[in-house]
Structures are given as structure tokens and as C-alpha cells.
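[User] I wish I could look at a protein chain and see how it folds. I have put the entry right below:
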Amino acid sequence: VVDSRYGMYVWPCAVVLAQYLWARRGSLPGKRVLEIGAGVSLPGVVAAKCGAEVTLSDSEELPQCLRNCRRSCLMNDLPHVPVVGLTWGRVSPELLSLAPVDIILGSDVFFDPKDFEDILTTVYFLLEKNPHAQFWTTYQVRSADWSIEALLCKWKLKNTHVPLQSFNADKEHLASSSLPGRHTIEMMIISLARSDGT
């Protein structure tokens, strides 16, 4: 898929997150996985191919992205993977009725700072419902001024940095892109902070 609009392109972050899933493929069978902001759904498709029970989601306001999720499933022989419309920061019947999850995936969802709190509000809601779950996310470093640290603190979330070399994703070809600009990719795992703040 080569279309540079949001949700219509396999962004470098998706490739790196897919590599992380592939490196952990032995632990995925039977895991309940939700991908948020899925777009063309590369990480979710990889998780499903590795035996996870996957649900894909993107904004209910972006029907073309939801169609792309379904198309990716069909093209990868995964016709039964559910696709739901979830808009970050909005409590909806779809969000409330989600099945329990073990892993939440998000590649390059931290793209526009105006969305950061809505994303973390949704992630917090899901982690509160599933306290054992983790949010595995990759993001592209676009500005040194953009940070989610204060929001993580506000929502009582903690993050753990995952070095790309720990899962062989530090190779230039993995995160390369024909798009202009820097493509420094980072990965972190976000979970609920314990009551002592750790």
C-alpha cells in the first residue's frame, strides 16, 4: 500500500512493531490483541498470523481506514478478524463492549500532539479494564519538543523503553522510507503504574 495519507500507508513504525511481534511470535498464540489506529494493520496482521486473537480498530470517523483494515485481513487470509470503529478519547458502545485484551498495539499513533491525551485516555481505560495488559507502541521521533511524560504521569501510566537492537530492528532497511525527513523510530511498552508510582 503506497498512499501517504494517514492510515493508508505502511509507515516505518509499523514495520518495526511487526518485527517486535515476529521476534515474540512464540508467546502470541492465544493472546488477545487489540490494534488501535490500525490503518493498513501490518502489526495486527502479523500478530494474527502468529496465532493471536486479534481485533483491529481505527477511528469510527474514518471509514476508509476501517475498509483498509478489512482489506488487509482479506488479502492475508484472515477474513474472521473483527474490525471496529474506536475514536481515541471517546467512550463509545464499541469501546465498552470490547472483549478482554492482553496486548494493545499502536504504531505511530503518537503523530499529532493534539491527539496524545485522547490516545492515553483510551489506553488508560483499556488498561484499567485489563490491569495485566500492556500497550506496545512504536513512534517516530519528529520533534524534541513533543513528549508524553507528563501525560503518562497524569494517567498513572509507566513506560519502559525497548531498544531496537534487542529484537533486531535497528537495521536501516526496517525503518527506511521514501518519505522525506528523519525516521528515527523508538519503541516503548506502557502499562499501569503501581500504587507506589513504579
Observations:
- The chain has a mean pLDDT of 88.
- The domain at 12-192 is CATH 3.40.50.150 (Rossmann fold).
- The first helix runs from residue 12 to 23.
